[in-house]
Amino acid sequence: MISNPHATTQSGLMLRRVMAALREVEGLRVRSVLTHRAGHAAEMCRGLRREDYDVVIAVGGDGTVNEVINGLLGEVEAAPAAGEVPALAVVPTGSANVFARALGYQPFPDLVARQLAQALRADQRRSICLGTWNEGWFAVNAGFGIDATVIERVEQVRSRGFAATPLRYLVVSTEAWLRSQIKPPSIEVRATSATGGGLHLHRMPLLFASNTNPWTFLGPLPVVTNPGNSFDQGLGLFGLTDIRGVGGVASMLHLIGVGHQRRLEKWIRRRTVQFDDATAVEMVSPTPEHFQVDGEYEGDYTRVTLGSVPAALEVFAPREEPLSVRRTVWRTLRDFVRVR
């Protein structure tokens, strides 16, 4: 069990509750370690095989999950088969926890611990697709342009000791949009799908790829851009062709889950791009643009290549399927009351 002590909801009390739930699993022996710096989780997982450990439990946010995956699988071209490396389990203690919640886990660590214990006890595992970028892996999403700019600005805020709340993301997103009105990013996109379809677009100010559905959460609310996307198929692409003016504001609000009425969607449809089951994506910009992977700022690039690898990793997950928006909100409120 690899724990990130700096994760948003991490605490000693929470870890004790997780360990108490895991001790109820017959035959389970747990070695618990803490990360001490960025990249430490990847270092600890590098070279591990199934004969070393049956499962690696990542206790942290999507960034910790990303590190564990990259450590287990290594370089994309030389990655081992899913059955050769430990399976992955998650106890989400980050701010969004998109990966765990998309698998069907509840957003509260106390409840997740019981779900995870049951999954381990019943050997509830599944194989999932993973995204690739250049020579690395991602589990949730990757973004080029304004999306990555927002992540980079939030990281600056967090480095000054402030929490990454949904309100702060909204404020930073608004600032990034206002600055982009002067000189918006210009991204050329080429993509192909598993069925042979293609996409070629010029001068996109924003484009991101998601490996999950929803692509993120705004507090308890799932934000859906590609409804047909899942861990069992290629990448879902979503982009905006224009972010200027009133239509640009509406499109950005649509991106974070606001304004999904039929009349408004019809109005902004010409500004949005959706492309499902992508297996190869190339994004090129004339000038370096911010790029993010699984909610972590990776740097500035002029060219990024994305891909999708089927059945890349085994994960432990609840039996139930991810919930609808209405049921997710209801269960989140109900479980919040239970925990409190």
From TrEMBL:
Supply the source organism's classification.
Answer: Bacteria, Bacillati, Actinomycetota, Actinomycetes, Mycobacteriales
Q: Name the protein family.
A: Belongs to the diacylglycerol/lipid kinase family.
The cofactors it requires, by name, are: Mg(2+)
Q: Signal sequence span per UniProt? A: none
Q: What is this protein called?
A: Diacylglycerol kinase family protein
Keyword Iron found: no
Q: Which PANTHER family match?
A: LIPID KINASE YEGS, SPHINGOSINE KINASE
Query: What are the entry keywords?
Result: Kinase, Transferase
Q: Which Pfam families match?
A: DAGK_cat (PF00781)
* DAGKc domain ranges (all copies): 1-136
Q: Which GO terms describe its molecular function?
A: kinase activity
